[in-house]
Amino acid sequence: MSFFYRFVAEGMTTNFTTPEAGKLTPYSAVIIFSIGLFLSNFLWNTFFMYKPITGTPVTYKQYFTNGTARQHLIGILGGLIFNTGFLFNLIASEKAGPAISYGLGQGATMIGAAWGVFVFKEFASAPKSVNKYLAAMFALFIIGLTMIVIARLN
Predict the structure, then answer these.
(1) Global pTM?
(2) Among candidates 90, 102, 95, 100, which has minimal Cα distance to 28?
(3) Which stretch of DSSP H or E encloses residue 148?
(4) pLDDT (tens digit, 9 = 90+) per residue, 128-151?
(5) How far apart are CA 93 and CA 89, in angstroms?
(6) What pLDDT, on a 0 to 100 scale, did the predictor assign at position 1?
(7) If DSSP states are collapsed to H, E and C, what string results for 83-137?
(8) Of 29, 25, 48, whose CA–CA distance to 37 is shortest?
(9) pLDDT greater at residue 34 or residue 102
(10) Higher-confidence residue: 14 or 130?
(11) From CA 99, how far away is CA 8, in angstroms rounded?
(12) How far is CA 62 from the centre of its chain?
């Protein structure tokens, strides 16, 4: 996962108004990336359906018949949200640079953590001592993102 952005950034033009021949724009990069996600999904889904980390193996028939249309649409919506955010991240890389843009894009991790802690209350039954680690995680993450922004200003 951590290697893909470097390759996408190398294949993209740095000037979106007059793109270089043979280089991708953010829009074409997202299309190519989406095709790769779609095709690799068959490999990874098949692998983890037949060799799950937990639970019992399932077949493709069970995958489509046991899952409701709502569940499948939620998965598709998640993919659309991810690709929209990824597109905006790539567009921002023209001004911020790919390293800064990627770093700030990791703020999505912070949003996911906040939902887990505050909305879904995933740590509600954890010992109270865990709260200091959660607070440290949020603080250090925000400090890290702040340092990325400050690095761009200098």
Answers:
(1) 0.75
(2) 90
(3) helix 130-153
(4) 999 999 999 999 998 988 888 788
(5) 6
(6) 60
(7) HHHHHHHHHHHHHHCHHHHHHHHCHHHHHHHHHHHHHCCCCCCCCCCHHHHHHHH
(8) 29
(9) 34
(10) 130
(11) 12
(12) 27
Note the residue count of the chain: 154
Burial of 54 (0-12, 13-18, 19+ CB in 10 A): exposed
Report whether pLDDT(114) > 70. yes
Give the alpha-carbon dihedral of 90, 93, 97, 101, to 10 degrees: -70
Would you state the structure tokens that stand for residue 29, as one six-digit string?
């990069």
- In the predicted model, what is the mean pLDDT of residues 54-71? 92
Q: What span, in angstroms and rounded, lies between the C-alpha atoms of 131 and 120?
A: 15
CB 13 within 8 A of CB 25: yes
Instruction: Supply 115's token pair.
Output: 């939902």
CA–CA separation, 96 and 151 (whole Å): 11
